[in-house]
Write a structure and sequence with these properties.
The complex is a heterodimer. Chain A is mainly β. Chain A contains no helices and 9 strands. Chain B starts with a strand and ends with a strand. Classes of the chains: A mainly beta, B mainly beta.
Chain lengths: ~110, ~120
């Protein structure tokens, strides 16, 4: 799986958009971009994933650059409950493939 | 979404004893499950891949005789920490995916193991 680079920490004001960047310059054509988050002392939670096109669901939006070398996870209106470590992972879609976690970004949403 | 349930959520055991952690896929069949370990302030590290009906595949540096994995059915994988020591104290997390391409993984809620 391609390696990802994320800032170790970010702050965001409650109610504002949180934009979390991820670099994956060595991504292959068959690798998806996945985002998960982990709230303290819980298992990771799936947020969103995409291959080439931008994606949006009830939790977030995923913006993937045209060259696919970077992406941004957008939480449109961050709340205190969004405080967590956010992991950007790239991997092939094979169901038997495990996830390799990097350091992630610790997002702190402040009042 | 699909649900993965892990039990127990928290366990304290004495040094030298064994502890079993269960991971169940509640509403889907998982031919493959994954076991991770997470130490404080660190990321998740893959320990092993559990395959239904066959032996688990362990990551380098993980002792297969210490961390016994059994995946006897399509909905249950167990991790047994044998002869636990204080350094085995950690957060253990299991994961499973639907047997389809382009799907997300679902994680259990994790098990906090403390060996005293």
């Amino acid at each position: 799986d391609a390696k990802t680079t994320q800032p170790p920490s970010m702050d965001c004001a409650e109610g504002r958009a949180a934009n979390l960047p991820c670099n994956h310059s060595t991504i292959s054509g068959n690798e998806y971009v996945y985002w998960y988050r982990q709230i303290h002392s819980q298992g990771p939670q799936y947020i969103i994933h995409g291959l080439k096109n931008n994606e949006t669901n009830e939790m977030a939006s995923l913006i993937i650059t045209e060259d696919r070398k970077s992406s941004t996870l957008i939480l449109p209106h961050a709340t205190l409950r969004d405080t967590a470590v956010y992991y950007c992972i790239v991997r092939v879609g094979d169901a038997g493939n495990m996830l390799t976690f990097g350091g992630g970004t610790r997002l702190m949403v402040k009042p | 979404g699909a649900v993965v349930s892990q039990h127990p959520s928290r366990v304290i055991c004495k040094s030298g004893t064994s502890v079993k952690i269960e991971c169940r896929s509640l509403d889907f069949q998982a031919t493959t499950m994954f076991w991770y370990r997470q130490f404080p302030k660190q990321s998740l590290m893959l320990m092993a891949t559990s395959n239904e009906g066959s032996k688990a595949t362990y990551e380098q540096g993980v002792e297969k005789d210490k961390f016994l994995i059994n995946h006897a059915s399509l909905t249950l994988s167990t991790l047994t920490v044998t002869s636990a020591h204080p350094e085995d104290s950690s957060f253990y997390i299991c994961s499973a995916r639907l047997p389809l391409e382009d799907t997300e993984a679902f994680f259990g809620q994790g098990t906090r193991l403390t060996v005293v």
